[in-house]
Amino acid sequence: MELRHLRYFSAVADTLHFGRAARRLHVSQPTLSHQIHQLEEEVGTPLFERARTGVRLTQAGELFRTYASRALEDVNAGLSAVGALRGLSTGALRVGYPPSMRGLVVPALAAVLRRHPGLALSAQEAVVRKLERQLAAGRLDVGLGYAPARLTDLDAEPVFDSRLALVVARGHALAGVESVGMKLLAEEPFALLSRGLRVRARVDAHFAAMRFAPRIALESNAVATVLAIVRAGLAVTVLPEPRLSDAERLVVKRLSPAPRSELAALLWRKGAPRTPAAELFAAEVRTRAKEDAG
């Protein structure tokens, strides 16, 4: 028995007409009849009743149809899966993320590219509200943001708790303090993200709850600029707890009391098919987030 026997059988079972089934399959009617006869010989019993008035399935044919349909569905699913995997060698991946999540996203993208160097990656770093609009418009495959998403046509899949933390230069006096309270920050200059950004709103809300008025030396809409000022020892900052390498010469410290966390999330467009490359990237993000939490 070969796959074509199942396909030919399925076509006749669907149409109950050898002529229409042959046209659907783009074969001659004698060829189709011969293939069905071969199948019936292998099964050991007639699968169709043939009469001048038409064709109908026998009881054995009805039973066999269930298993033949299931087998064809499994084969088609397998072909789709292999095709999707093959697509990873030449496809594209469009990712958007806020600057505060760069330390998580970049290693995940690097892991995807190592496994599938033929992929064309596009990484857009922007504020979350812009990323949500881009994703909803279909200009991104997957995004990073927060749960719940602002836009109702997006799904947010929580992946980790985003906690605010203090970031100081490695040689700063507070670098050796285990947990930093507001009193220790009273005389410190701050470099903060600009007002209007979601992270800045979180920072301001925490400072307001602590009745703390920071001395702001710099405001910027670029995380890289803020961290450069902190690295130079000219200020401290508060950001969602970043992943830092030794080369960045920065130290992350816990704040006391701890600010309220938010749920960082993978963002998907509702109802849109997820590309294999986007799913692979999402799996890398989940794995890294789990490792950090553990």
Automatic annotation (TrEMBL):
Name of this protein: LysR family transcriptional regulator
**Record-level GO cellular component terms:** cytosol
Q: Which domain of life is it from?
A: Bacteria
Location of the HTH lysR-type domain: 1-58
Protein source organism: Corallococcus exercitus
Keywords recorded for this protein, A-Z: DNA-binding, Transcription, Transcription regulation
PROSITE patterns assigned: HTH_LYSR
The UniProt entry, under PANTHER family, shows:
HTH-TYPE TRANSCRIPTIONAL REGULATOR YBHD (PTHR30419)
